[in-house]
């Protein structure tokens, strides 16, 4: 297909994308480009539809307008079979890990291999142990998902996401709710996997420090639009008030501390 | 997929017991167990009134079931009920001059044909006809007669 | 007044929308069965969780229902001097009605609610979504085996229920109340017809298994992925299954035994 339509260096290109949930507009005509082999972060406050964006890229949701091309293929025009083939080349790490709760760690990592390949069990074992070793959990392969801590579950999910050696991985809020140690482990893992496996990574997050530390390029979303973009250094030096508030976590700024409300004094005195 | 042998065993046990239950019902509970093969012959009898007799009602001699009613229809000319019954071939020595009566099992039970063996040396065979018949007793008629007698007797 | 009409319209519209989603879901599930058959392991696991785990409740309930039928039947029939017909009464009520219906209701409560909760939680914890992103169709992989298992287990459970119920009736009638053993079985065999009664009973339970599994799985799949949504979906499964089973039972009975 039209691989030539996108420059060699771009893996995912999003153009004129609009998407709404009910009456609420989540994306309003946004454009994004994600470079091959780089870590691209998509940041923004909660509720800006970052997870929705990943689902759009994965073809689980369809946009209202605009198109998304992954490796030159228009995701939402693909027949189901081709979409599934494309998904085999994408990994996604869900916020909760999304491990299958009725099988142990080993079977979870083996799941995509067993579903999509006809490899003999001995080879599956080798692959599973390699992937688990890469995330440091080879010793935990007999545990059930409910015996894992949140950070471990995410690492298992990461091992599962790389089981089929995908070309890209999408991380949905990988750092949320992690203690400093597992956070550090995840940051290290994402960076390491990206370089050693030659992956393209998309991180959706609102954890500024951790994300800025490993991202090559950052898009900042707010109110359905891209309000800032650039390398972490460029963004840190940005003169946009909004970007400044977000990157530094000020309580008040262009985004107000208070939810829109009638005048405080009037509200208290209205007596209803 | 690791899946335990115990699970396989239990599933096997479950399926086997379910099928056993189906067989139990087919053979022990229903009439399938007593169905006769085609090893039977047909005998015809005319009744003035076959009452509540139905297809598959039992046919018996001395209380032993020897066959079943296979069809009941109306003779267009005589306005009699023509009852065909299939009798198992092993009962092949029923005298030709036997009589057939329709009785009720218990006061409210189902109706059946009872055959009273005669003394002929000839035996019933396929398509032979029973000539001596007595009709079903219809309860309303009995009550009607009884009431009439009572009224007259007064 | 206008508001009332609006609410009615809205309810109707959402009911139809749900029916439509449910139909697509069912078609997808049925086509997925072709992918289950080459992998019997998936099926065995589900037959275990819907069938084997319902075994105890079904057999114990069947035993008690049969014993109650034996006791009540004896009391009524002995007024007419027709105790010998106890076998017929117990067997006919179980094979025609109580076996398929009560076991379907128990199945909805035991296995159906568990299926809804399981699927609903898988949805809430993004397992279904995660599977989709791993290029595995969650309906084919998760729903179809469960559907097939429910569909297969239901007639077996109903048969077990009826068989054990008849034994329970025999235990009370013959063992405790002194009905003649021979008469009990002979009258039963004379009146219960294999095609009319047993086969029709099995057809009923196959239909109920189909409907209850469909409702349970669809409610789970369609649940709002929160704890409240899943709990509501579970309730709906039990209520809607019970309602559908009883309504269908009337329709099937009318078609099979009645002259309507």
Automatic annotation (TrEMBL), chain A:
Q: Which GO terms describe its molecular function?
A: ATP binding
What domain of life is recorded for the organism? Answer: Bacteria
CDD domains assigned: ABC_Org_Solvent_Resistant
Q: Which UniProt key words apply to this protein?
A: ATP-binding, Nucleotide-binding, Transport
Output the InterPro entries linked to this UniProt entry.
AAA+_ATPase, ABC_transporter-like_ATP-bd, ABC_transporter-like_CS, P-loop_NTPase
Q: Does the keyword ATP-binding apply?
A: yes
Pfam families attached to this UniProt entry: ABC_tran
Q: What is this protein called?
A: ATP-binding cassette domain-containing protein
Which organism encodes this protein? Answer: Methylomonas aurea
* Upper classification of the organism: Bacteria, Pseudomonadati, Pseudomonadota, Gammaproteobacteria, Methylococcales
Automatic annotation (TrEMBL), chain B:
Arranged from A to Z, the UniProt key words for this protein are: Membrane, Transmembrane, Transmembrane helix
Boundaries of every Mce/MlaD domain copy = 40-118
Kindly list the residue ranges recorded as spanning the membrane: 9-27
Q: Which residues form a coiled coil?
A: none
Provide an example Pfam family for this protein. Answer: MlaD
| NCBIfam families tied to this protein | OM_asym_MlaD
Listed name of the protein: Outer membrane lipid asymmetry maintenance protein MlaD
Q: What gene is behind this protein? A: mlaD
TrEMBL record, chain C:
Q: InterPro entries annotated for this entry? A: ABC_MlaE_roteobac (IPR003453), MlaE_Permease (IPR053408), Permease_MalE (IPR030802)
Q: Which UniProt keywords apply?
A: Cell inner membrane, Cell membrane, Membrane, Transmembrane, Transmembrane helix, Transport
Q: Per the UniProt record, which residue ranges are transmembrane?
A: 47-71, 147-178, 198-217, 238-257
Superkingdom classification of source: Bacteria
**Lipid bilayer topology:** Multi-pass membrane protein
Localization terms from the record: Cell inner membrane
Record function comment? Part of the ABC transporter complex MlaFEDB, which is involved in a phospholipid transport pathway that maintains lipid asymmetry in the outer membrane by retrograde trafficking of phospholipids from the outer membrane to the inner membrane. Probably responsible for the translocation of the substrate across the membrane.
Family affiliation: Belongs to the MlaE permease family.
Q: What name does UniProt use for this protein?
A: Intermembrane phospholipid transport system permease protein MlaE
Provenance organism:
Methylomonas aurea
Q: Which gene encodes it?
A: mlaE
